[in-house]
Fold this sequence. Notes:
About 35% of the residues lie in helices and about 15% in strands. The protein is of the alpha/beta class. It has an 18-stranded parallel β-sheet that branches.
Amino acid sequence: MELVVGASEATMRSLLAKLGYLLSEEYTLIRGVNADIQYINDELATMQSFLRAYGGSHGDLMKDWMKQIRDITYDIEDCIDDSGHRLHGLRAGTPCYFLLSSLHELLTWWPRRDISSRISILKMRAQQIGERRDRYGVNNLDPGPTGSGTPPVAGFDVADNQAASLLQLVATRNPVGVEKHLDKLDRRVTCIVGFGGVGKTAIATALYRNFGEEFGHRAVVTVSQSSDLEAILRVIKDQVKPHTRNHEQQDGSEKKDGLAAAAIKRVWDHVSRGTSDVMTKCCRPGTSEHRRDRDHLKEELVEHLKGNRYLILIDDVWPSVSPKGENMLLHCPKLLLQCLGANLRSHLCRLSLDLKAATMFLFRIKSGRFVGGLPLAIVTMAGHVACNPRKSHEEWLDLCKALFPESGKADGKELTQEEVGRIVSHCYNDMPAEIKTCSLYLSIFPKGYKISRKRLTRRWIAESFVCEKEGLSAEDVAETYFNHLIRRKIIQPVEHNSNGKVKKFIVHDMVLELIVTKASKENFITVVGGNWLMQPPSSKVRRLSLQGSDSKRAKDTEKMNLSHVRSLTMFGSLNKQLPSHSFKFGIVQVLDLEGCKDFKHHHIIEICRMLLLKYLSLRKTDTKQLPDNIGKLKNLETLDIRETKVVELPNTICQLERLVNILGGDKTTRDALKLPEEMKKKKMKALRILSGIEIVEGSADLRHLTELRKLAIYKLKTLGSDASFKGLRSSIEYLGGYSLHTLIIDDESSDFVGSLDDLSSPPKFLLALELSGKMVKLPNWIKQLSVLNKLTLSLTALRTDNLKDLSKLDALFSLTFSFRAKQQDRQTLAIVAENKLYSNGEITVPDGRFKSLKLLCLSGPLLPLLSFSRNAMPELERLELRYSMLEGLFGAENLAKLKEVHLTSDDKENEDRMTKEIASELGALRRIDGTAPRIIFHQRPILVKPNSG
């Protein structure tokens, strides 16, 4: 398998920048080694040029030489970073410089001697690597035989890929060409069989989606190679319990108590005994205590599901041998209907992919917009075609012959798993080096994990994989890289923000397996636990992803050399996963503990010793307070403490001059983060996102944050004076003239929101605006926001006249009217009723406007009668209604492009019946063109998914 060079080049680029900084310092950091540093800098610059020219696959000697370059690059960077926090030089302009300099040299004699010795050794290694290349004749850039015909890949031109990505909604789509498998679900156990990438998961998910509403309890679980039985049952339990409802007894044959026990027993027996030798080894009971825990969990599930109908989808089970004797992924059982026993072999649905049909489909693709639900090979190759528009038809035919030299032997030949893997590997290798580097980072996350777009791109920046380029900020470059991965079909969006951008995505199992293999071979990332069976690393661990919390995996971690870990990501519990003494805290730059349990006070103390930390995420942990020592993290760029118990930032946070993102509070509960008083005195010029904060008396002046792109105020407290209102309004006016693109204000009293009409210079460049409270009248300047694409207002502002004003916003993509549970009082209901009377008994959506609107969401306890005019909202694709009571919906047939209507009510039985009646009426409607939108009925309240910030 070809060596991936993108990661090495990115590390080299970061290191050269650090070496250049050392050489340009006004003081001598380490006396006597400047010449060595200069030599290393020059040698690595030449190596970087070689890496940039490296584009194809080479022989073993060349690969080994490339590995040596990568390893010394990592080691030099470790040395430089270590010296950076052990030694602090004095600048020439320091008062009493000569006296302090002598004292400083005396106090730092030993660490300076140690680092000087290490740099000299590294210089010798760099010399030996260059000499070794000449000695063994590794001096040819001509690619050797590869067998894949992969030519050198051109670099990625960010400017050419800066075209604004098409904002769209992630819609539910059924697989194409397998309609016969989706008609019904009338068997207790259905198994879908086929090799990886043929579309098994797509069909199973479509069945689960189409028929899931018929079952009171539902769950989806991924088993894979190394899952343990207790974890599988726990995932099922966590999903089926929230769906508990008082359903009427259905299907008398399933009321018997014994069937539930048999169901769980079959899951137990199948996973622990019939999957694979590897699974058996992983699932074997370890101690009597663990066995008791599993037995208790099984009994709890049996009792909970007793007498109910339930649907469980078990994905990615690995047997030792397939029915054809092939070594392949076999999802068996793929879909367990009610987990009830049956003869598995009699209910197999075999899938295959016709090679000729797939090839003909690929050559007909002319753009990057594809049909959803297609097998992996077609989708991935389609992305490859879309990203190479200049290739001729003959070049594509030559590629097809290179990938499938045996394809001409028989028409209609089915693709094998090896051939599908060949397609995926070729499409991956075709990507530019910097995109490959960023894609390797996907191996950090567990199989099937929904990855946040912003979490990923911020980590790219912290790792220096992405930097400012061609006049674009690092954030903009990261967005371009991310969109390219989507276009390539390497990642698959599964959730969207209401502004039309991707919120979360997944990676197909087969693509992720390829990426994990490459990342492991490159020593890019070491994964412990999770769904992959990987050999322990033979060299130093640079990036570590801990995806399991059992004692066996903790012992595996103890055997590793963790003194060079620069990035640590943990999932699950912090207990017994990691021996903290194994870390050299000074060089850790990325620490991501999002969602980890058992977070203790001593953990945050240890974190404050990681002086080179750039990215710190404690989101959804039990963090209660940040210590003053957080101010020592001078390199920190992102601090994510959302959905924690931290309610106030210490004053020392203002010492972090490189801090770019402060993410706090809770979007759902509106818990807010109190800013320190020192913030108004400090510049913090790098700050771009300030989210989830509380504004109190004295903290309303934010005008010094001139780089701020997003300001999210979750709470306004004691702003009763005109001076406080004026200070915050002045800040919004001032920042709106700079870079402010997103403004969120939650004002329960509505006093401040009501005063926004007094802005003398409105923020005309806003892309997203959210104003919450009991506001009725909109600010006059809102009609001037010509580039606004996302708008969220209180339901109290839902009036016909306001809709007329908003309909003039031609760039508006999504429009939401909602309010939170705390606002559902008599005053709110009275305002809604008054608005309805003001609008002649119904809220009318005007025709001929809202030219770009694709998402309309209304949420509240009482939704008034809503009427759509004949040509209203011509581009609307999704309508979401969330309510306790809905008075009515007229004119839905006038929405020409409406694809989905989502109806959500609370759990009360009478509201469910009302919602089903409304859904039935909408389902009977036909648009002007004779088609009908899909009606999706949610049986429990779903929260508006906020931007991840």
